[in-house]
Amino acid sequence: MIKLSTIPTTAPEGLKKSEAKKMTDEYCERLGKIQHALYAQGKYSLLVILQGMDGSGKDGAIRNVFKDCSPTGIKVHAFKKPSELEFAHDFLWRVHAQTPEKGMIQIFNRSHYEDILIQRVHKWIDEVKVEKRMKAINAFEELLEFDNNTIVMKFYMHLSREQQKRELQERIDDPTKQWKHNAGDWEEAKLWDDYMRCYEYAINESVIPWVVVPVDQRWYRDYVMSKSIVETLEKYALILPTLKQV
Questions:
Q1: SS3 for the chain, per residue?
Q2: Average pLDDT over residues 92-118
Q3: Fewer CB within 10 Å, N- or C-terminus of the chain?
Q4: Long-range contacts formed by 56-60: CB under 8 A, 24+ apart
């Protein structure tokens, strides 16, 4: 049972930033080569799900970890408030349309988990619906893995409350980040304890496990994510197709 309050949000003592950044660059380079084979082979796909509180660095993680990947074989989708058409369907309807075809990497910046996070925190859905949606999510992700060769990797961006305050304040103080400022983020931050409870539920009830990524130090975030993705993908037979001998 994962309890987020017991997991550090910073790098372990003894790990030097310079060494971690060097290893991250190596992992990113390897990821670029793996993605090339993934795209060319067209047998598997990768779905990367990023969830975390406002200010946890999801955008930066995407930019840094996938820097050596070809834009041809990668897509990013940021899930926002559902449209009227999306609200008229089941909560997974809009999500399924964004899942990756074989050969592709698809990144979800927020995801279907919002439907048991923000909706649960604000009590827009009851606990019965939360439980049913969790079961549907597990079935949906297993369907992707076993029916379409989609490798599903889920990352919870583990941010401290203190670091979130610094990140949100920086969106006010730094002119280059002011476009990110949203007064509503500060209101959501007041519900921290409720969000942690709901995140822990989602993490612990998931069939496909989550990687909890400490993100207070962005260099360590990039190291953990790149290492995890590369080591996972290297378990698969991702090879470049060759000409058949006549």
A1: CCCHHHCCCCCCCCCCHHHHHHHHHHHHHHHHHHHHHHHHHCCCEEEEEEEECCCCCHHHHHHHHCCCCCHHHEEEEECCCCCHHHHCCCCCHHHHCCCCCCCCEEEEECCHHHHHCHHHHCCCCCHHHHHHHHHHHHHHHHHHHHHHCEEEEEEEEECCHHHHHHHHHHHHHCCCCHHHCCHHHHHHHCCHHHHHHHHHHHHHHCCCCEEEEECCCHHHHHHHHHHHHHHHHCCCCCCCCCCCCC
A2: 97
A3: C
A4: 56/157, 56/158, 56/159, 56/164, 56/167, 56/215, 57/157, 57/159, 57/167, 57/215, 57/218, 57/221, 58/109, 58/110, 58/157, 59/109, 60/218, 60/221
Amino acid symbol at 147: D
Judge contact between 19 and 53, C-beta under 8 A: no
What's the whole-model pTM score? 0.95
Count of CB atoms within 10 A of residue 63's CB?
A: 12
Q: Determine the Cα–Cα distance for residues 66 and 75; give it in Å rounded to an integer.
A: 11
List the one residue out of 121, 114, 77 whose CA is nearest residue 97: 77
- Torsion sign (Cα): 225, 212, 234, 107: negative
pLDDT digits (tens, 9 = 90+) for 157-167: 999 999 999 99
Summarize pLDDT for 10-31 with one digit per residue, the tens.
999 999 999 999 999 999 999 9
Residues 208, 221: Cα–Cα separation, whole Å = 21
pLDDT band at residue 246, thresholds of 50, 70 and 90?
A: low
Are 202 and 94 in contact, with CB atoms under 8 Å apart? Answer: no
